[in-house]
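S1.2 Input.
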Amino acid sequence: MRTPPTPSLPRFHRFRILTCVLLALAACTNRGYADHGMDVAPSPRAAISPAPELLRFDIMSGSIANHFYRRGPVAAHLLTTSGPVPRLLVAFPAGNAGIVLGFAPLAQPAAFDLAPLTTPGGVEEPDGMRGVTAHLIAHAPSLRVHHAMLAGIRFLRDEMGGGLGPGAPSLAHEIDPGPPLALRRIMLDGRRIELRIEPQEGTTLTLDKNEIVLRAGPDGDVHFLVTALQDEPPLAPFPVEDLVNTHAASDLQARRALSFLTYREKLLAGSWRFLTYFGRDTLLALYMLRPALEPPAIEAGLGSVLDRLAPDGDVAHEEAIGEYAVWLNEMAIPRPADLRAPVLDDKMIDDDFLLAPMAAAYLLDMPAGSARAEAFLARKTPSGVLYRDALRKNLALVLSRAAPFAAHPGPETLVALKPGLAVGNWRDSNQGLGGGHFPFDVNVALVPAALRAAARLYASDLLGPDPAAAGEARALADAWKGVERFFRVEIPAATARARVSEYAASVDLDGAPAVASIDAPIRFFALALDAAGKPIPVMHSDTAFALLFDEPSPEFLTLVAGELLRPFPAGLRTDVGMLVANPAYAGDPALAAMFTRADYHGTVVWSWQQAAMAAGLSRQLARKDLPAATREALLLAERALWEGIEAAHARRAEELWSWEPVGGKAALIPFGQARGHVDESNALQLWSTVYLALRPPPRP
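S1.3 Output.
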């Protein structure tokens, strides 16, 4: 599918460039304001309380401008979308709630963002409402509100992803004509949320049968002030200086991103779409960030996972909170007494095998963690269970799920997705595993890693000790060695060259370099096995898990290095970074159609996956038992990987990005901003901040 070219908009681009320059100057100016606590509020009753730290930064991603604000009890992400269909969205970490204003399509695409020389400001009001305010400007003759929604972010996600569907609750809001005009709603959990709109600089606002229209003033642009508020109790943030240690990289944007997403109650997965707890994201981010994090931050994340464990030790994937939880609880049988109680989703299987490796890495291997381990494990979950006992529950679960394969080794006894589900690991879109049933990452890397960690924890004094359980875990880990044999795929060289050439032509890439790189049969590990145990022949980046958690054979490492060095579609290397999937060798158009550059887990680049691969390569290169040829291949692969990472340096904190063919090569485009893209990328992603714990290799 060819992505349509961006229309030529000279005035639009001139305006965007001028605005970006002025905003950069404004950011410098506002540092002085922040240092003196002079955060400007829009009205007499909107005044920010003094706070020790102001966190305010911007991320531009294609047509989306993201503005992050946090100070004291106020934290918010405000974003605007420019172009033919402008949009305003505000997301609050507290309560995982948000507001979206969608405007009607314009005759001509328009720039829409903060007015020059302005930044978002914090607002606190005596009645407990708090939020942000901003002066917005649209280079358009008018803006008409097409739809508005004030609700839990999960509802916003569902609505934008195709609609709420039958049975959804009423999310209607009321409109107070003001002035200022205000959209207000009492959410299902009783919390208040509000958006005020005040025209500025000659712009006029009319309200006719609940249709809100803003018309430009004398300068031809639409100016208005928005104030987004809610009364959810705030989360407790970590100041930037208390979050990371002296080993952390001096990447200011990554530090700010991590700080915006890290709170003493929990770590948030991403903004704006995943602005709450996710177990897998928390554990993977902690595991890769641990050299750079201060112990209280690690314990906040690890504790949030233990607090949400199921009684059988299953790690919660995602929490539904606020009004989304109320809606789910109202439908539950039996209905809980507290309708606001979080609803935990346990459908994933990978997170269950991540807790033990992270717990062992912190409590046993890190000096600071070892010193604090007894006190940490003596804490209690909200239900009154000691952390020590909660962790033992998870270890028991790991052993029970690994036992069937150890007793009867074969693909059919590997750890499978839960019955009736198409998702279960980080590739949690419906097509992410290509119909697979037994994921590579879970079975080859995570289950063995969890068993080894369980053995160490059982053998330590922290949980008992329990020599019998430690011995059982070690025996199971031995039985799981070599599981990668079930995932092997081999394509004859001639067949591989033909498939790569055909695939390259289908996606408008110059396939000559890729074809030329194939001088022998292509061997790789399948993304997953299907329900019958047959490999899904899609090349992938999940080999990074084995590099992070295991010590693979030289042959395994050589195969991985080849995938990182060969240009796509022979391998995973592109000018925009390492792709997470490559279906070129599948020889099946239906399977290849599940992994396009418009798919969430298709031929796209995920920032954290590049970081995981970089960390894994660094870990393997620290080994002393590798042959010289393997080491040289890994060094070349590491260099190639970091070239791709540095090429998109400004996007490191983002979730993912895609590409379009330009002159036979891949050119970067934001994910979610081109025709056919299935979703929208987060501007901030927790596990994309892990570069704080990484260092690029020295230049040759």
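S1.4 Remarks. The chain has three domains: 10-230, 240-479, 519-693.
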